[in-house]
Amino acid sequence: MKQYIADGMLLVTAIVWGSGFVITAIALEYLSAYQVMAGRFLLAAIILTILFGYRLKKASKSVIWKGILLGTILYIAFALQTVGLQYTTPSKNAFLTAVNVIVVPLIAYAVYKRRIDGYEIIGSMMALVGIGFLSLQGSLTMNVGDALSLACAVAFAFDIFCTNLFVQKEDAIALTIIQFITASVLGILVVVGQGDIPTALEKEAIYSIVYLAIFSTTLAYLFQNVANQYTSATKAAIILSTESFFGMVLSVIFLHEVLTSRMVIGAVLILLAIFIAEIKPAHPKKRMMNSPR
After folding, report:
1. Are 237 and 163 in contact (CB under 8 A)?
2. What long-range pairs does 58-63 form, CB within 8 A, spacing at least 24?
3. DSSP secondary structure code for residue 200 in this structure
4. 280 pLDDT higher than 70
5. What pTM was estimated for this model as a whole?
6. In 3-state terms, what secondary structure has residue 88?
7. Residue 220: exposed, middle, or buried by beta-carbon count in 10 A (0-12, 13-18, 19+)?
8. Number of Cβ atoms within 10 Å of the Cβ of 230
9. pLDDT tens-digit series, residues 230-249
10. pLDDT tens column, 188-234
11. N- to C-terminal Cα distance for the chain?
12. More confident residue, 89 or 71
């Protein structure tokens, strides 16, 4: 039952993250990418500290350094994604971010020497073709926003893998609090360093930051980190990758984004790659190898 609840929490996280592409696109009309990140992480850290700050009293050195590492990875991933969103569309940003599901098995191989099977190889090749359809322009060059989105996929893959590894032995909520505090400190330092502290905020910017902080950050990452205690990194990556689908649908509905035939083909190929690489024919040995635990 815990596993089913965990899967449900991850699906809710994917839906919320899908909506986050739309809300972030709106926020970027009023704020810089770094202001958006500083705002969402600072508010999220304050909320979690108020609700669960008592858990930090028993936090060990292990929890602290692991939380700091997760927070640093998280900030880098969101910096790449949010800045990338300034130069590409929410749908393309969402689907390119979803490529992290292909990267997770590669990390598992590097750490645990788990072999990469034929399904993952086929999936990776199909994902590359899909990325080409989705991102490459007529001159076979890639938009800088698409390149940053791909880089963020690698960073998110490390975030998913490390989170799954750390929560097996540590308090997931304490880890999340330290993770957000670290990300917020990094965000504030970057904004202050750029001399880009906002002096006034439009109400649309405030609403966007509040939504991103409460739902896309606090609730989503709390769900993800807790759910990772009851599932494998690979399975978590599969479920979370559906955020790309929700991001595309919500972008079309609320932002009236126009999808070209090439973008649709690329998106479909990436989705197929994810399912081919990760949802394999059931076999006990493969199930064991799929789990990094």
Report:
1. no
2. 58/171, 58/174, 59/171, 59/174, 59/178, 60/170, 62/169, 62/170, 63/170, 63/171, 63/174, 63/175, 63/178
3. -
4. no
5. 0.78
6. coil
7. buried
8. 18
9. 877 667 777 777 787 788 78
10. 999 999 998 888 889 999 999 999 999 999 999 889 888 888 877 66
11. 19
12. 71
Long-range contacts of 67-70 (CB under 8 A, 24+ apart): 67/174, 67/175, 67/176, 67/177, 67/178, 67/179, 67/181, 67/182, 68/178, 68/179, 68/182, 69/162, 70/159, 70/162, 70/163, 70/166, 70/175, 70/178, 70/179, 70/182
CB atoms within 10 A of CB 122: 14
Structure tokens at 245: 């689908």
Backbone angles phi, psi at 142, to 5 degrees: -105, 135
| Beta carbons within 10 angstroms of residue 96's beta carbon | 31
Phi/psi at 136 (5° precision): -70, 135
User: Which of helix, strand or coil describes residue 143?
Assistant: coil
Give the contacts of 1 (CB within 8 A, at least 6 positions apart).
Answer: none
- Is the pLDDT at 291 greater than 50, yes or no? no
* Residue-level pLDDT at 287: 43
Q: Report pLDDT for 140.
A: 54
